[in-house]
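Reader question, answered in our methods column.
A reader sent in the components of a multi-part assembly and asked whether the whole thing could be modeled at once rather than chain by chain. We filled in our standard form and ran it. Here is what they sent:
COMPLEX SIZE: three components
ENTRIES:
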Amino acid sequence: MNAARLIFDLAGAVAFVFAAVMVVHRNPIKSLLAIVVSFFALAAGFVLLSAPFLAAIQVIVYAGAILVLFLFVTMLLNLQTEEETADRRPFQKLFALVGIVALAAILLSDVRRSGEITGTSGQPPATGAVEPLARALFSQAALPFEAVSVLLLASLTGAYVLMRRERSGSAAP
Amino acid sequence: MSVPLTDVLVVSVALFALGLAGALLRRNAITIFLSIELMLNAANLAIVGFGAKVGGYQGQIVVFFAIVVAAAEAAVGLAIFVAVFRHHETIDVNKINLLKW
Amino acid sequence: MSAADWVIVVLRPLVPVLGAAMAVPVLTWAERRGAGLIQDRPGPNRVGFFGWRAFGLGQPLADALKFFFKEDITPDNADAFLYTLAPWIVMFSALVGFAVIPYGPPIPIAGRIVPLVGADVPIGALFIFAMTGLSVYGIVLAGWSSNNKYSLMGGFRSAAQVISYELAMTTAAAGVFLSSSSLRLTRVVEAQHASFLRWNVVPQFFGFVVFTIAAFAETNRVPFDLAEADAELVGGYHTEYSAFKFGAFFMAEYIAMTVGSAFIVTMYFGGWSLPFFHPTGLFGGLVSVAVFAAKTAFFLLVFIWVRWTLPRFRYDQLMRLGWKVLLPLAFANLLWTALLVRSGVL
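And here is the structure of the entire assembly that came back:
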């Protein structure tokens, strides 16, 4: 049990607890804040796995932009606390829970044997440096890099078109 | 002085299961969406964990692209969500059950 | 790791944080006296110590006591948890930026070489960008949880402003990272050590302009303080806050200003280094820290100066400036820097 493992376990526990709060809490804003904390803890986990750049990207993009977008939408639509309804569907929930527990059990039984994994990629282990990651990103992954920039442009356009209020009487595509 | 792979994967599976539970059991569309993002993050953590174990930067690159794609998907998904909300006035997914309004 | 190591590790980030915390009262005094000087009036000069007027230096103390003793009101329908949490998110995101800004050269202390930086992380500047991005949450939550239309509008406007100018800021900073070929802030400072012409403000002047303007916008300082504009939004996102929570917002703004100035100094003006000065030993280190403090103080005075000189931007002007002027200018700067680096000049 070394320090890195201890801190990772702690960060993982924090991430799990706050993710549980997110799943359970009825108020959409509080659950969103809980998942922000959870992603923050995940970013700490990334740092411990020698991926500090990814940790920064996680906080800047995921916690700092995507979740802010969620927050804006939640606030703009003034989404209220989820109420109980008459339509409770207990069997659906029960089967869902059973399915999830079964899946988790299957995955965990595989995870228990993960200590025996011995394959390597033949490359040296990742250090915390950004330069080798940048080299790999812009040489091997140059095409996907350009492709995601086009993807972002497409999603930007799509989001804009979807959010436009339709003009009355207009049938423009 | 590093994190064993088993720890990483246990956390990843736990978060994935939580995300799945949220996506299946909640009725609030935003919470469902957040649970899906949680599942994506659990997968990202697992990929980075494997990358740390086998060496090289492939894992980090894959996760980089996964985060970017998740951003694009969140933008479009929320735009769709707002458009749906404008018509139905509710976000309870049990009530949004007709293709045509 | 011995006890001395632990003490050093704890003190390294604490020194700039404490420095900033102590600078905040001086800043409030400088702000109000500076405002007075610019507006051709004396400014507060009455509050002193034991009968000696002392140029009004007791004013910050009086303000701090006022914040402590005022009644702490929580509005009726406000979400109490979020209402109380919001100022501390903003304060946290402002303070933690000091963890990665280098304030001095590596100096020998107690037999080991100690770099004068909180944590020399390989992603240096990205850490600051990540943390200032978190301040959006504090602002939006403050606006939302106050249960007040003015607060909500102020919160949204401010959040949109911070997000928009974040883009221009990071693109301008990308030019600096390109020329110093690293994200590490100690490396950025080192790369500017050679001469005054190597200070990034010279080859990347427009990047510096974009970065500074964006820093003004990020800290909600005039001319970008629309979110708290008195004439339009009462107090914006901190309308409903009183006493200590308002004091927290107030302090957080000044601390963010200090982090912003320190960041500008590090990225564009060589940080703690002076070209002809190669510090070794403890004395050289302390002189470098003083140099850094002096440069940061200069930019803080620029912040104050601009506040009382320029009128406030209207919201649409603000957004247009951020997206249509600063962002293209930052990209042009990036292209220019890439040309300089490629041609071997930098």
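What stands out: The two ends of chain A are 61 Å apart (CA to CA). The mean pLDDT of chain A is 86.
Send us your own complexes using the same form.
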